[in-house]
Amino acid sequence: MPVYALAWITQGAGQPDPGAAELTRNTDIVSLLADATPLAKVVLLILLIFSAVSWAIILYKTWVYRRAERQTATFLNVFRKSSKFSEVQAVCPTLPASPLVGLFQSGYAELNAQLRAEKTSDGPRAAIEGGKPVAVVGRPTLKSLDAVDRALLRATTVELTRLEHRVPFLATTASITPFIGLFGTVWGIMMSFQAIGATGSSSLQQVGPGIADALIATAAGLFAAIPAVYFYNHFTNRVKHFAADMDDFALEFLNICERNFT
After folding, report:
1. Which of 65, 67, 155, 180 could form a disulfide with 97 if both were Cys (CB 3.0 to 4.6 A apart)?
2. More confident residue, 262 or 258
3. Cβ neighbours of residue 105 closer than 8 Å, sequence gap 6 or more
4. In Å, what is the CA distance from 5 to each residue of 1, 13, 16, 90, 192?
């Protein structure tokens, strides 16, 4: 082989292909985002907002539920070791995150209201001891255990609403964002076909960047939807566990009331 031919091959092998370099530059994600159409940028901005809000809710509710679980365990320990409801009531302000605190305070308020009403209406009973009248205070009794049960049910509804606050937004994100991303993809592919019709060229270098730009919208939609679906199901399951704990506590509270005040 002639020396000049070998030198030409070596020189050509050492230099990058301009067309390949241009294709690499055009398919770079940052370049695709910068060169995207205004509508594609709007779609990506909407998906970014949905994703950011979803992750904020995910982190916040994770912290809330962990705090509620710790305080619920502490509250149950105090409740089962205490001999008086007044002792439990004194601890409640230090455990505001536990849903059981709301149930107890509601049931305790209804219990106190009934006992005070009975004491005011009946008054102390009189007895004769040693020839002298002596006031006898009878055992306090509940007029309606069903009223205490209804108070606990109302408190359960309030606590469940508080626990589920903002969680439905994750379901909304999981449902909407894939379709928003699909809309961006369809629009980008339409623009690519228009470019093919205008230039008359269907080469990969011509249509590749447009199709890649379109598929980024689909990827962004899935990026927003997949975590939202997972954590929505996860949080819904945790709320169900809290609801079961509240039902068990309500029954335990009613049993104590029935044994001691009926």
Report:
1. 67
2. 258
3. 89, 92, 155
4. 7, 12, 19, 95, 42
220 CB-near residues (< 8 Å, 6+ apart): 43, 44, 47, 48, 51, 181, 184
Q: Which two tokens stand for residue 170?
A: 């994750």
When pLDDT is averaged across residues 220-235 and rounded to a whole number, the result is 97
**How far are the Cα atoms of 89, 154, 155, 248 from residue 160, in angstroms, in the given order?**
21, 10, 9, 14
Q: Give CA separation, 152 vs 99, 228, 240, 260, in Å.
A: 11, 32, 17, 18
Question: pLDDT tens-digit profile of 44-71?
Answer: 999 999 999 999 999 999 999 999 999 9
- The predicted model gives 81-98 an average pLDDT of 94
Give bridge partners of residue 135 from the DSSP assignment.
Answer: 126
Reference 107, options 31, 159, 161; nearest CA is: 159
- Dihedral class, residue 180 (left if φ above 0, else alpha if ψ from -120 to 50, else beta): alpha
Residue-level length of the chain: 262
